[in-house]
User: Fold this.
Amino acid sequence: MGSESHLTSPTSPTIPSAITTGHKAARNILNVVLGDNLFKTWYPSLYPEELVGRETETLHICPWCFKYSKELTPFVAHLSTAKSTRQSLLFQAPTAGINLLQLFTQNLSLFAKLFLDNKSVFFDVSSFNYYLLVQEPSPSSSGHPQIVGFFSKEKMSWDNNNLACILVFPPWQRQGLGKILMGISYELSKRERNVGGPEKPLSELGRKGYLKFWVARVASAILGMRNKSTLTVQEIAELCWMVRDDVMIALKEMALLEPRKRGAAMLISKSRVKQWASVSGIDLVPPVEESCFLDDWVPEVLDGPNA
Assistant:
């Protein structure tokens, strides 16, 4: 990238209503350049004022290490040396220095705050793991791998949260990438033997995304049980590795809860689930394949929650 004339301005996703209804916070960064993309920010972030100013029209973000500069010339100079950092940081992370990884996650968190209203962790990142979604270029392309989103997860969560923060960067939203990150977080829950869910409260976009993800996950689990005609909410929670409250939210959205004739338990009819999924056009294909996980990356899959 030699100048801003090579940048593209992708169509922006729907901006949260809090920004468009008169409750807009004063943004200190108005636009960002990430790779070949120029796009608007949504919220302010705690970038050091002595480095970026009180209000900056455009902040240049390194697509590999997320270092930043409001000046184009030093930024271009940084890009010429950043590829080696990308190789050691992203693809050989265990060999990278602790300070380098901490700086990377701090920069990533500052960038994410530009698009998340309720993010609060920027500098004390040592208690979180970060999982990056990297888009590989096509074999015929001369492009480079691009980080397009991420989620963070507490290393030790007393509430069994399997996700603390999630973001797909605006140019790559509305492509179904968010459900991949959500799917990975639940696959990690399964492999760690912890029934879990995202940290609450969810943002406006997060709530919409999770609701769509939960209903598909619950419907798929119910229809995958071949030898049972009815299931309890607890059984669904164990099948999906989801907390009961999130299962109930999904079932209420599906409007498929039926009271049992005796007792207080609620039942779900598989036939009604199948009909609902067909009418609603729900994609029941899991967004993440277990076979894609590396055995040396996460613990071995064990049967049964909290076993």
